[in-house]
């Protein structure tokens, strides 16, 4: 019998909140059951197992991030789009550290079958980069550069890894400017 009030949506929402509070590794079926005041078995009507729960949190986080990125970059190009994308990315990662960490987990084709949540962020990155006149394989290389820079920065920032007196926001803006310069001057193959 399904406990009144519990739905898959509520379970995943509570797991996302828990991830932000204690980290994605702290999201367990037992911890979530305690949050609802039920036995672990009550949650298995809504999730298959712990991995399924964490995948659902990752998918939710990817969708939430895309929902922030889309309006940020809409109607913008070049440095304006890059900066808007970067700022929305950073704001989400810092506001939702557990969800952001979940969004980094590798997902299988089965995990994302029929969903666009995992691909929307990638499509937005490529849209921003196309304004710089990049084509494959440069698009993929540049996308990896952006992701590596953004992820590295926000991961260090959220862990308190920047102890210098210079404000991290100023360093973030400088990093975005440097990325813009790199993208504008992307090495082109010789003809």
Automatic annotation (TrEMBL):
Q: Where is the HTH tetR-type domain?
A: 5-65
Matching InterPro entries, A to Z?
Answer: Homeodomain-like_sf, HTH-type_TetR-like_transc_reg, HTH_TetR, MT1864/Rv1816-like_C, Tet_transcr_reg_TetR-rel_C_sf
**Which PROSITE patterns does this UniProt record tie to the protein?**
HTH_TETR_2
* Keywords (A to Z) from UniProt: DNA-binding, Transcription, Transcription regulation
The answer, when asked if DNA-binding is one of the entry's keywords, is: yes
UniProt DNA-binding residue ranges? 28-47
Q: Report if keyword Ribonucleoprotein is assigned.
A: no
**Coiled-coil residues:** none
Record's protein name: WHG domain-containing protein
């Amino acid at each position: 019998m399904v406990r009144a009030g519990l739905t898959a949506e509520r379970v995943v929402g509570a797991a996302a909140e828990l991830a932000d509070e204690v980290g994605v590794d702290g999201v367990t079926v037992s911890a979530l059951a305690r949050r609802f005041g039920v036995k672990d078995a009550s949650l298995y009507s809504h999730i298959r197992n712990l991995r399924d729960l964490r995948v659902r949190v990752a998918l939710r986080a990817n969708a939430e991030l895309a929902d922030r990125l889309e309006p940020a970059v809409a109607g913008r190009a070049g440095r304006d789009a890059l900066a808007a994308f970067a700022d929305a990315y950073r704001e989400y990662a810092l506001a939702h550290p557990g969800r952001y960490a979940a969004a980094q987990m590798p997902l299988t084709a089965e995990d994302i079958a029929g969903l666009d949540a995992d691909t929307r962020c990638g499509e937005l990155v490529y849209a921003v980069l196309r304004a710089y006149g990049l084509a494959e394989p440069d698009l993929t290389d540049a996308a990896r550069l952006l992701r590596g820079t953004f992820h590295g920065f926000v991961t260090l920032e959220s862990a308190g890894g920047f102890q210098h007196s210079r404000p991290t926001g100023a360093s973030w803006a400088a990093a975005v400017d440097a990325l813009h310069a790199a993208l504008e001057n992307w090495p082109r193959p010789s003809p």
